[in-house]
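To whoever picks this up:

The nightly regression suite flagged RNA polymerase sigma-54 factor as changed. Nothing in the input moved, so I suspect the structure step. Input below, exactly as stored in the fixture:
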Amino acid sequence: MKFEQQVSQKQTQTQKLLMTQTLQQSLQVLHFSIDELNQYIKSQSMENPLIEIKEANYTSNYAKPKSSTGQELDSFSQVADIHESLFEHLIQQIHLNYRDTYLRILVLFLVEYIDLNGYLKITLEEAQQITKAEPIQMLDALTLIQQLDPAGVGARNLQECLMLQTERDQKAPSLAYYVLEEFFDELVGRKWDVIAKKLNIGLNEIQLIFDYIQTLTPTPGAQYGSVEGLYVIPDITVKVEEGKLKVIPNRQGMPELRFQQNYFEQFKDSQDIEVKKYLQNKVQEFESLRKAIMQRGDTVLAVGKYIIDAQQEYFLDATRPLKPLTMKEVANALDIHESTVSRAVNGKYIETDNGIVEMRDFFVQSIVGTDGKEVANSQVKTRLKELVDQENKRKPLSDQKLSEILADEGMEISRRTVAKYRDELGILVSSKRKRFD
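Regenerated output under the current build:
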């Protein structure tokens, strides 16, 4: 029997997200709000004797930030939050528990898209497109996040959030996880007889499961702080002067980084090799931090200017209209990555004559109307709410009927999209809006 072994060489090209320590710091600094950046710089100065900080001194005319629609948000006092944020809590766990691998890089990427309530605000498909990772790698990264504290963090919806908490709780009723997984809609809709029949259990058992679920939290990240009790320092101020917009970067809110020249001079001529090496490392750390802060300022300002230019009518028109705008559009215009835009607007604010507005609120998705023109989905949602407010409550409009009415008005969207917008607006389905009085 003839045995033949064939050896061949094959060259393959793969694309991976590789980050140096300097790049990681730059991305981290870009992600920070001004208040978070101040705290980060202070922590760096504690470890580096060459860093001296001149404290920022910023005062604002606005005590209460507003949404892009002009709605006033919760009151903000002039006291900074001294508690650990959810983002900081997760980052610490990741560095402590997970080795420095490509998978950890993906975990760190996804963490930046977790909101204050602990929910993941990017789909795995979107994350895969940005990072060029494999689908299984993104799923593995999400699984690692969902194993972190607090239980429920990294969930993509309420159902998954409750399931993650139940899975870890040894005191949970035996069927609680299964009911959440397979009969969530029936449980929420109180169609308990359907669940009881399919599982061959009594209504009293379902009541126990429902009572237990009531003890879980729908917002696992909220315990690490909320907007209440914080103050917002905007990165950009927009003023209207003679009908034109003037964009002013907020330098006052930023701490001034200074080099401790006296300390450097004291040890630079030392003959001790370890002292020289230490001093050299600290100089490099200072320069790296200084460049990261400058790059953050330049990037946030560039993104902010583009947003302001694209949404000029919001600042000039009393009705505050918003045009369709996406992060991808900004990224293409500025020749930067879409994830960079996302980091640049995360937790960043613009001070306007109408109050302080988060930069992320200026991004509005669009639909193409029957006339071929783009319509901001915020306009569609506004009209949808008007239709529901004006409907006959004895005969509420179904999602299909709402879709038809909007189509007649030039805003052609599917029934499923109507349902999605309705959920986002907190509007119940027609059967639950019906009244008999």
